[in-house]
Amino acid sequence: MTLKRTLYALAALALLFGVWGVLVRLTTGHENAAYGSYVVWGLWVAMYLFFVGISAGAFMFATFDYLFNIPLFKGTGRAALWGALVTLAAGLLSIWFDLGHMERIWEVYLFRNPFSVMAQMVWGYTLFGAIALVSLILVIQSEKSAWLKPLMIVGLFLSVFLSGGVGALIGVQAARPYWHIGLFPAQFPVFSLASGAGLMLVVVGLFGATDDARRPQQLWVLGLTTVVLQLVKIYFLWADFSQSLYGGIPMNVAAVNEVMFGTYWWAFWILQIGLGTIVPLVVLVQPKLAKHNGWAGWMGVLVLVGFAVARANIVFPALTVPELEALRTAFNDPRLGYSYFPSLMEWAVTLGIVGLANTP
Amino acid sequence: MSNPATATVDRRTFLKSAGAAVAFVTALNTEPGRAVAAVDDRLAAPPSVEAKKGSDTLLRMQAELQRALQKKPGERRWVMVIDLRKCVGCSACTISCVAENKLPPGVVYRPVMEQEIGTYPNVTRTFLPKPCMQCDNPPCVPVCPVEATYKDENGVVVIDYDQCIGCRYCVTACPYAARTFDFGATYTRGTAEAEGVIVGQATADNYERAANFEYREAYARAGRDESPIGNVRKCHFCLHRLAEGMLPACTTTCIGRATFFGDANDTDSLVSELVASPNVMRLKEDLGTEPRVYYLT
Amino acid sequence: MTTTFTRRDFLKLAGAAGAVALGTRFVAAKNGRAAAPSLASRAAGQTAGNWIATACNMCGGQTGVLVRVDEGRVAKIEPNPDNPIGVANVSTDFWRWKNTDGAAMCPKGNAGPMALYDPDRVKTPLKRTNPEKGKGVDPGWAAISWDEALNTIAAKLRDLRDAGEAHKLVWFSEDHSFVDIQKDFTELYGTPNYHNHSNLCDVARKASFKLVVGDERPLGDFANARHILLFGWNPLSATKWSHLPRIFTRAIENGAKLVVVDPYLSQTAARAHEWIPLRPATDGALALALAHLLIKWNLYDQEFVNNWTTGFDDFAAFVADKTPEWAEQITDVPAATIRRMARDMANLRPAVVDVWSGPGQHSNAVQGGRAIAILNALLGNVDRPGGLINPERKGPARQKPHGPKIAQPRLDNLNLYPFGHGSGVYTEVLQSIVDGTAAYMPKIGMVIFQNLVLSVPGTDNVIEALKKLEFLVVVDTMLSETAEMADIVIPGTTYLERYDLTTNWVTWTSVSLRQPAVEPIFGQLPEYEFVVEVARRMGLKDADDKDFFTVGRISGQPVDSTQAWYEEYLSEQLLKGGPKISLDDLKALPGAVWIDPKGTRYEKFKDEVHLPDGAQTKTGYAIVKSADGKTILGFKDDRGAAHKPDGSALDVPADAKMDDKVQQIILDKDGKLWGYVDAKGILKGADGSEKGFRRDGKFLKGWSTPSRLIEFTSAQAAARKDRNGNAIDAQPVYTPRDWFPNADFPLYLINWKESSHTHSRTFNNPWLIELMGWNRLAINSVTAARLGLKDGDEIWVESPYGKAKALARVTQGIHPEVVGWQHGFGHWGLGHIAKGKGTADGSFNKTISDPISGMALHKEVCVKVYRV
Amino acid sequence: METSLARASLYNFLAAAFGDPPTPQMMEAWVKTVPGLRPAPLDEMSQAYTRLLVGPGADYAPPYASLYLNPSSNGKPQLWGAAAAAVEALYGEAGVEIAPGQPRVPDHLALELQFMQHLCAREADAEVRGDSAQAVEWRERQRAFLRDHLWPWLPQFVARLSNTQDEARAVYRALAAFMLAFVQSEVADHG
After folding, report:
1. Which of C246, C253, C251 is nearest to C103 (CA)?
2. Which of A232, B36, B44, D56 could pair with B32 in a Cys bridge, judged by C-beta atoms 3.0 to 4.6 Å apart?
3. Any idea what the CATH number is for the domain that residue C841 is in?
4. ipTM of the complex
5. What is the pairing mode between strands C657-659 and C622-625?
6. What are the tens digits of pLDDT across the range D12-31?
């Protein structure tokens, strides 16, 4: 269990760092954030997308156990639920810190604007969180509760709709052609499932019960699921990029170029495509490696890292392209620039949240 | 009535003058009494302000503003017209707006965008001031989770600073980059405090922290988290100035006299005339946002 | 008429009266708390004191402004429609547009509060503790009390004067405010070395126009013109005064054609119908070719030229070979374009031609400017509607104090610059200090609101010169690069904290008041009070040993408060000058501005000069002059008796000169000499100053040139030698400037100004820095490609005198042989916002001036540019 | 009621004449109303208006009561002061405040005239409603305002305005004379 201990140690460190970040955030507001008014969403929003994606995916996996009763996954449900809850909390925490007025979050619950996708997401995730929590409590008390199945059904629906909804949240923005592509929201549930699979690989591969004989089989199935979902993901990426490039809308082309050849090209090619997609694909199609705890678990980590980068590559490129080209030089202020790299405070808060999520 | 002089005032005269007087009383909106009901209101000539073609545009716009202010809010349609042939790219509007609304660093309501067109020696530069377009179909409004931004009764897209949670969803929704976020900075931040030698931040801050009067509320950027810090901010056609019969700051200060403002529902207004020019255009019309800011090219 | 009216009649009339439309003069009072007002709200003011009418000084334009003060703090600045500066250039427009809120204000004016509340402002006198001086050397400032500062300065000045070296005080000041009191001080103190800013700006233009149309600063009546040709001027952006862009946009609206000649596509060029790029400093050649065509095609105004000008035939002969093809070789403007320009300006009348500092800051500026000024004469459009107007000026009158006689020459050798300006020659003073070629070494320097280091060409030279002064006092609001060289820094006031009387930038006389909107925010002395206080502590008196700085100028009584004393001083200038009102009256006038009700007058050259009542005209008399011919001693009547000007008998000195060619002598009714008509028919006063000329038995005013006519050919120029001892041509010749690109330094380097900043002093204003935060070097895309440069590249800019890093801006909008940028950037002092932004353009120059007018040569530089 | 309305109408007419730049409609009404008034070209009228009533310049006749009434420490008349503040307070008591775009100094002639119109109109309104007590009250206010504020400076103002020559200004001279006579008759009538 040295791995677990190391991880705890790292998590504790991250948490400490995170406490500093949160303190800075709470005392100085947004002054130390690196995003501005043009790249107006930063790391925290990307992390929100990332975490709630995992959360939805993890819940889907929990239904394998409690709803569909797939024998192979019996017993993994509790961990999946736990994961869903923790990552959801992390996601919501992340977006909460991002708000200009954290203290006004309750405003959203007043049903002021039920047609805002963001409001829908807040209500939806709150409900989803409640369901995950109640489910977990039920599971801990007794897995035989009559309430569990209906809860699972509602939760499954929510996990699909909400992950799609997150896609819609930005997909409805006609102002940003890069987001406003036909298939855009549709890919989000798939991404959720895929990142859920990644999380399960980590949970089962690195932290699974050593005495469980089903473990290699579970890993193999999770691995295959991941492989399939990775292929679907590549298809979506191709669909996105080809629509953008062939469509030729300048803002769109610029955004794609920014992803592939811009400042952070390496994040796309090395982290997202190389380590996050190709390597897991290659490793997990090999039964021997796929069934190996360590290999499978670490592939899960890589998949998650790939997704984190992929989320960032969805949020930022659309924002780094000026809506009107001449805005670049119209007014000079650091907040009115088109490049973005998260500030120390942002990293701290995010790492703190990751640490917090890891502590349980 | 007992004054004998009244006998000499014939009925016609009386009605005319009565019309004017009663119109005035009505305008006061106090204790209307029976007098208002008693007089045929066709005789109460609507107040008209003289403003003709050929007079100075500012005079005319001010007169038209007075006229528009006498209408019900829903009946007027504020629009802005910017004549790009007259814009000299000086950015006086940008700074007058910063001053009027006490904007902090990085918050800008009306930058002037510059573009070079052509190849040497056949080349020119265009200057395009870009306020909020006050779209009739604003993409920023439906996305707001708390309805903190909405079209007010005048048709101006406004932000309720006390309701806005600062999620910046509207910023991403706006195709014109008209919205910026108040990060809470001040210009004087980072000034060395050379005790007793230079002014230093504390004193200078004082000016920056003084209240602006956007939306007719006194918003001092006093604390770390007090609105409008942590809010999204944008051009609001200087609603607080309009309420007092003053044109938006950018319109008044414009040294090329390139910015025009008024009520497009008033068919006699300058802006109505300009909007009907053959050389009129709006930004990103294809998005269906129906901007209320028109450009003459 | 009205007395026959009865009350009954009045009431009858009510019927007709009732038809008048009704405006809303009142609204129903609201109950409860009123909504918060706008910053600019006049309704918000509960007392009248909340809006203060004053004049801007964010640049030298002096636009009228209204300042809203809340709780002792400046809240907002708005345009002031009562002040013509900011509304209109000619009075007919002003009467029409005034009070319609027709005023406007540029970004700098709007950014005024940030200058007042600049966190880097100096708030107390500072003393240097580090004796070492140099660029970037920390002076080790120590705050000292006002008493210590004033006493130290007064003692230093007193010692210098007591040692008989009063002339070794050298004084530099800004030129738009409180200069009179500074001049008074230097005159009473006994130094000839008072200089102010103008010779860094436009004195070449002043000399050119003075030589041709007899006025230093004619203003174009652009709103009424149908064709406007501008040489090297960017009035739409380098705003200067806020109505300026509007008179152009109004002209364009009225159908005028605007053509801009400039190596750089300025904002004005961008709004023009035509941009004519050319090589720097060749504008004069282009103007000569245009003159050539106008004459050759007979498109000039013959009536005007015949009646109101002189030297035309010689000029016509001179330009006979100045063909468009000749000009094309020099200017790089195609001959066909020049032909089109000439045709347009002749066809679209009234047409006006103007020039400012673009060609004006090169070594051939004065003659080039003359060629341009002359185009107006050919178009018959001087002092006429839509043309170039000679404004009337009747501002406050400075009352010259009676100071000691000063024997020593000026350090700047102003007398050697044949058409130099009263502001002096900064470059010559500073360069001669460095070289040690000065007639004497000055010891004390006083610099008031001048950042010499960044605004005089040759940055390092200027620093060296300042280092050589024994004691330097700098008065400024900021710790500028010049203040960094000081021994004592005195905190200055911004325009919102002090008084000034500012005069016209419009075509008729107005005097606007600058008055404190708020008290000086650190209780510091405004500069004029500082001068008065130093003088008082020195015990400075005039040559008759009478107190000057302690006695009220009107009351004649001792005045204790320096402010009250200065208010009286200003009042005296107003009462004795054009306005004839007191300072209090001026404050009470709407907008705090006095306006000459006569307004703009055109064709003033046709005014008659009236002789005094009872004047007697004598012929056969002679004028008696001193040996050098400069002073008029008296006159000799036809019987041979000599008289002093007052009529009493005159002992004619042996060496006196007798001018018996005078046509007439004019005596007033008491027999005193009033004036005379010289051999050429010029009417002169008893002191020899020209008043007009005789035509058809009448005396006409004409222009203020020696011939009283517009001078195509300048005899007065030909009679003088330039600073280098070279003859000056009577014709406005094109001579190439001194410094041309060569293989080592192949590019012309020019600089310009834009609306975002003034000189080198607004760069710590954060609002303005947001508009323009860096002066990237504009390079034509072809040139950039040749040099392998891309937009945004970091580059070296190098001249024989300096080398610095810069950022490239690749553009189509500049002549391929030229690179250029906005002036004023590159501070290493001033304040935390200004510091480290952009590149200082002055560091590449020599410290040198044009030899005719003393204009600093900011733009005569060649550089090479290469990637870092 | 007819009387008060007619008077209101005249005050309104005068307020417009001295408070707004001339327009063709106003000219028309002037010619109809003011006996002996000859029209002048509008351009000249506008300039005359500015020179005479807006200023500055030698011909400026400031239309502010305080500049005629205020004694002040330095012997120069000053704008505002207690009298102007009192006038503003009266406006408030009568339920009105100065509208945006109007002179912010309350003792401007046009405001004072318009205020008289308001008082007359309120009187008429009360009469129509049969509230004679209120009508008397409004009438009393008129009397006090005329006596304490409008009349005391009007002759001086008119004298200053009349001290000018030329065509366009003749119109304003006629208007001023008319106003003076009317207000004088008002004062006489109100005792």
Report:
1. C246
2. B36
3. 2.40.40.20
4. 0.83
5. antiparallel
6. 889 888 988 788 888 888 88
Question: Please, what's the largest Cα pairwise distance for chain A?
Answer: 65
Chain C residues in contact with A331 (beta carbon < 8 A)? 770-771
CA-based end-to-end distance of chain C: 88
Instruction: Specify if C30 maps to a domain.
Output: no
pLDDT per residue over C153-204, tens digit each?
A: 999 999 999 999 999 999 999 887 789 999 999 999 999 999 999 999 999 9
Q: Which residues of C touch D175 (CB under 8 A)?
A: none
Integer Cα distance of A35 and C606 in angstroms: 68
Measured distance CA(C541)–CA(C528) in Å, rounded: 17
Whether residues C590 and C683 fall in one domain: no
Instruction: Provide, as residue numbers in chain C, all residues whose Cβ is less than 8 Å from the Cβ of D63.
Output: none
Classify burial at C66, counting beta carbons within 10 Å of its beta carbon; exposed 0-12, middle 13-18, buried 19 or more: buried
Question: Same domain, yes or no, for C461 and C516?
Answer: yes
**Which residues of chain C fall short of a pLDDT of 70?**
1-5, 15-24, 27-50, 71, 96-102
Nearest-angstrom CA–CA distance, C385 and C600: 10
A1 touches chain B (CB under 8 A): no
pLDDT tens profile A235-274: 999 988 998 899 888 888 999 999 999 888 999 999 999 9
Domain hosting C68: range is 48-116
| Residue (of D68, D88, D93, D90) closest to D78 by Cα position | D68
Q: Does one domain contain both C145 and C286?
A: no
Alpha carbon distances (Å) from B243 to C34, C41, C178: 12, 10, 41
Q: CA dist C794 to C243, C776, C838, Å? A: 38, 10, 11
Same domain, C523 and C583: yes
For chain D, the residues whose C-beta falls within 8 A of a C-beta of chain B are: 1-6, 8-9, 12, 20-21, 23, 25, 95-96, 99-101, 117-118, 120-122, 124-129
Q: Is residue C29 part of a domain?
A: no
- For D5, the closest of B21, B28, B246 (CB atoms) is B21
Nearest to D15 by CA among D81, D63, D65: D63
Does the beta carbon of B149 lie under 8 angstroms from any beta carbon of chain D?
A: no
Domain A34-342 is classified in which CATH homologous superfamily?
Answer: Formate dehydrogenase/DMSO reductase domain (1.20.1630.10)
Check whether residue C108 and residue C224 sit in a common domain: no
Residues C104 and C174 both lie in one domain? no
Pairing of β C802-811 and β C777-780? parallel
| Domains along the sequence of chain D with CATH | 2-190 (1.10.3480.10)
- Chain B: residue nearest A42 by CA? B168
C270 touches chain B (CB under 8 A): yes
Cα(C740)–Cα(B31) distance, integer angstroms: 83
Cβ(C171)–Cβ(C195) below 8 Å? yes
How many domains are contained in chain C?
5
Domain termination site, one of C344, C367, C389: C389
- The minimum CA-CA distance between C128 and chain A, rounded to whole Å, is 35
Which DSSP string corresponds to D103-117? -SSTTBHHHHHHHHH
Tell me, yes or no, whether C233 and C374 share the same domain. Answer: yes
Q: Which two tokens stand for residue C408?
A: 């020593």
Q: How far apart, in whole angstroms, are the C-alpha atoms of residue B239 and residue C782? A: 48
* Residue that terminates a domain, selected from C666, C700, C734: C700
User: Is there a single domain that holds both residue C227 and residue C354?
Assistant: yes
State whether residue C32 sits within 8 Å of chain D by CB: no
Domain-embedded: residue C205 = no
pLDDT in tens, A200-233: 888 888 887 777 788 888 889 899 999 999 999 9
How far apart CA B257 and CA C372 sit, in angstroms, is: 29
Residue C423 contacts residue C203 (beta carbons within 8 Å): yes
| In a domain? residue C39 | no
